[in-house]
Structures are given as C-alpha cells and as structure tokens.
Amino acid sequence: MTGTPNLLTGTPDGSGLIEEVLRMVHLSSAVFLRGEFAAPWAFASLGPRECAEALCPGAERLVLFHIVVEGRCQVRVESGESASLGPGEAVVLPYGDRHVMGHPRETEAVPIANLLPPRPWGAPPIVRQGKGGAPTRILCGYLHCEDLLFQPLLKALPPLIHVQPATRAGAELLRASARYALEETPTWRAAGLTARLPELLLVECLREYVSALPQARTGWLAALRDPIVGHALMLLHASPAESWTVPRLARSLAVSRSVLGERFAAVLGQPPMRYLSQWRLQLAAHLLRTTAETMPEIAGRVGYESEAAFSRAFKRGVGEPPASWRTKSRGTAIDRTG
Fold first, then answer.
1. 91 by DSSP, 3-state: which?
2. Is the bond preceding 40 in cis, omega lying within 30 degrees of 0?
3. What is the CATH number of domain 226-331?
4. CA nearest neighbour of 66 among 205, 196, 223, 211
C-alpha cells in the first residue's frame, strides 16, 4: 500500500470502549471512604479478599481507587510498584492489592482496620489519622466487580495505575468530581448520577492514563492508542455480529493482513479473531445475565450462525453451557446497592 487512509491518521479516542468494557464486566458503585489525614500518617490496607468481605460482603473482588483532593501522599503495593500523588492525581488498583498509603513515606503504617469506625455504617465512613501536620484529603472509591470473564481490560492492567492529568483542567476535573462525590453521597444507597460517580471517576482515571501511555507500552489500554489496533477494536466492538475475517478487517482499515496480524500480536499478544471471539463471549455473558433473550437471539447478536455453535463456543470458553451459566450467575448475584 502506498498511502495511509484518513481513518489511521490520528490516535483513536478509546473513551467509549473503556466505558463499554467496564459496563460489560458489571462494575458497580459499592462504597466511598473519605480520608482526612495530617502528617505524619500512613495506613496499611486489607488484602483483596479481606477488603471485599469487609466492604461488600459476597463480592469476589473490588477495584480500588484513591483521588487526592488536597495535600500529598505516597502509595506502594506489595509487588513494589509505587507512586507519589499530589492534588488532582489518583491511583487505581484494579485487583485491590494490599497497599500502604501515607505521608511522608517512612511513616510506620497502621492497619486500616484499626482506623475504621465500628460497624454498621449508616453513611460512608471517615478515616482520620495523623499528628497535626500538613493536611491531606483523599477520596477512596471502591467498586464491585462481578467477573473477569475473558475480560481484556482488567486482566491487562498493572497492579497500580498512577493517573497524572496532563493539564491543570484535567486535574481540577478529578478534584471537583471527588468533592462532589464527598458532598452528595450521604448514604450507601445513593441514586442517579451520584450512584454512578465512582464508575465515571474510574473511566476518567483510565482515560487520563491512556493519554499518557508511552508508545512502546503493550496491553489493552495501550492498544486503544495504536493507529491500527485501536481503530480495529472500534470496528469490532461497534459490530460484533458482523462476519469478520482477517482479510475483511484489514480491508476496512486499508492495511495488509500481515501488518494487522503483526500489530495485534505486538500490542495485544493475540490474533484479531481470537480477540473477537473472547469479546463475543463477554457480550454473551452480559446478555445472559441481564436480559431474558433466548439462546438463539443471543447467539445471533454476538455473531454465531446457530445456537449450537454458540453453545459449543461458550462451553469451550467458560466450562459450562450458557443455559446453566445463566442460572448460576443469576443465583449468585449480590446486592450492588451497598
């Protein structure tokens, strides 16, 4: 090929795909914690299972994020990754890993369980710690994640994401959103926009993270910025039921099949059609869980020509037929309203 089509001349905007993927994995707002600290201070979090049990009993896992509204702090996870945060910056912990948070870094950490007020909590609890020094105010968001089935986003994330908005306006947006959440979430059972604020904040955090990724980075979020893979993902997500093949996808992008395959392998570590198969099953799981559509209807919506072909693919990917998975998933769903 001698030219580059208009489709590939810019960096794709992956915000819509981030929101879609988060919706498919059933992220939902669970808990807000507010931190009000005065240096020196530091706390050690619970482990992933203990955190889920304490904050959202019945949940398998939680996605955590912390936004600094005022002051500074450091965050370090057990695997060694760390970040220093200032006002308007955030960290996302996709797997809820055990971590230490505080200021300054050398302060001895107190177990978070020792700082939480006694349960039950009639409203989002406030955690206070410190000895009267420089203040730090933090919004600690906890989101319930029901599953990671075939999920290309959360599986590909590092254990700690440091979100540093590239502009002052971006930082102020995070701070303003956090302040609004603190002021407008007086009870667990918030409704409307307030109930979705943790999800919206997480989307904004991930969007800022994607915008700052170096070109050499790999994984699903990095793929959103790739001129070839990013636009391919947009096409596949927009029309998952289409009869996609590698040649057809390559033609739609005006690139060769070899270039398409090479970019997918380099950025995502898998061929385009394997990614599509996984995404179709993720969509199918979403429809099985949230709709009353029949098996033939779901099969058609996610790109399978017959119910039998869909059932075989689902069983191969999940380990059980879609009908029994639907029954099981609905029977084990937990109350997400807190």
1. strand
2. yes
3. 1.10.10.60
4. 205
